[in-house]
Write a structure and sequence with these properties.
two-stranded antiparallel sheet, 94 residues, 6-stranded antiparallel sheet, mainly beta
Length: 94
C-alpha cells in the first residue's frame, strides 16, 4: 500500500531509537525517547492551507528533524510512519 499525503502533509519514517547510552547502558523500550530524526517517504502537493499558499520545501529521501511530539502515527503493512505538517519539520540534515 502506498501513502499519498494531502496538502502540506509529509510522511516520515523515523530512524531506530538508540538502545544504548553514550556510557554503554542499555535502555528499555519505555526509557527510549521518541526519535526526532526521520527520512521523508512522501510529500503532499502543497496548495492553499488556511487561506495561505504553501510551497513544499522538502522532497522524498530528505533526512529531517521533526518536532518531538508532532503528527499522527500510523502503521501500514507492518511499518510505522508519522504524518506531519511541513511546518512541524524543523530542519533538514545533510
Amino acid at each position: 500500500m502506498k501513502i499519498k499525503p494531502l496538502l502540506d502533509r509529509v510522511v516520515l519514517k523515523a530512524y531506530e531509537p538508540e538502545e544504548k547510552t553514550a556510557g554503554g547502558l542499555i535502555l528499555t523500550s519505555s526509557a527510549q525517547e521518541k526519535p526526532q530524526f526521520a527520512t521523508v517517504v512522501a510529500v503532499g502537493p502543497g496548495g492553499v492551507v488556511d487561506g495561505e499558499k504553501v510551497e513544499m520545501f522538502v522532497k522524498e529521501g530528505d533526512k529531517v528533524i521533526a518536532s518531538k511530539y508532532a503528527g499522527t502515527e500510523v502503521k501500514i503493512d507492518g511499518e510505522e510512519f508519522t504524518i506531519v505538517r511541513q511546518s512541524d519539520i524543523l530542519a533538514t540534515v545533510e
